[in-house]
Amino acid sequence: MEKLESKKHLLYAVRIIFERKEINNIWESHKWIVNDLIPLNVISGEGYPPINDVRITPLINDIKIQDGDNKNLYAADASIDLHHAEAEGYAENLQSSDPSVYVVLRDGDLTDKLDDEDVISSENKVDVHLAEVSLSPYHIQDYEDCGEDKVEKIPLYGPIAELLERFVEYHFHPEKFKKRKRDKKNIDENVRRGGDFRLSKKNIYN
Predict the structure, then answer these.
(1) Is residue 190 scored above 70 in pLDDT?
(2) Which among 20, 123, 149, 203 has most CB atoms closer than 10 A?
(3) What SS3 state is found at 11?
(4) Do residues 20 and 74 touch, judged by C-beta distance below 8 A?
(5) What is the pLDDT, as a whole number, of residue 123?
């Protein structure tokens, strides 16, 4: 059986835990931060990767939580797309001073994708959704250049980092630098003739 990391296209399912943190600001009442990322499972990808525009929902629904710190926790399930064409970007991530998982948040709660019953029962005050989760800094650069979305970085470690290292080792093969060799025969011939006449001082300054 072929090793999983040798596949050209993998989907790593994850659950991302968010916190809706209240802040004292005249312009906004809260901000969204990534609290944790939980690896789930890996499958071989087929065709196009899933679109990661997913709704963020309360971590625990319809339960009165005694611990006040937990009431602001939310979650979203998504998939990290690993593709062999992005291997160079993954290698850059692993070799950086702070290897990261990149999480992109976008304004809007995606209520237009829910049925009426879900909309009525939803009182979680979620005003963002998960737009993307990636391991390639090259891919995420487009979001940063746009400036309309919020990009969160969380440390890359554990099973996701281990799989990524194996994936990069298998798929990333940088070209070795080859020093250009000059034609010794032509060099010797120029020396015997007194060098290239085109580089003589007379020709340079005339």
Answers:
(1) no
(2) 20
(3) strand
(4) yes
(5) 47
Q: Name the nearest CA neighbour of 196 among 205, 186, 206.
A: 186
Whole-angstrom distance, CA of residue 25 vs CA of residue 173:
49
What gap in Å lies between CA 146 and CA 184, rounded to an integer?
A: 52
Residue 162: both structure tokens together: 């281990």
SS3 37: strand
For every residue of 145-187, DSSP letters joined together read: HH-SSEEEEEE--HHHHHHHHHHHHHH--PPPP-PPPP-HHHH
Q: How far apart are CA 70 and CA 37, in angstroms?
A: 16
Give the pLDDT mean for 23-38: 86
pTM of the predicted structure, to 2 decimals: 0.73
Can you give the residue ranges of every domain in the chain? 4-171
Structure tokens, 89: 């970007």
3-state DSSP assignment of residue 114: coil
Upper half-sphere CA count for residue 108 (Cβ side, 13 Å): 12
The region of weakest confidence among 14-23, 139-148, 169-178, 181-190 is 181-190
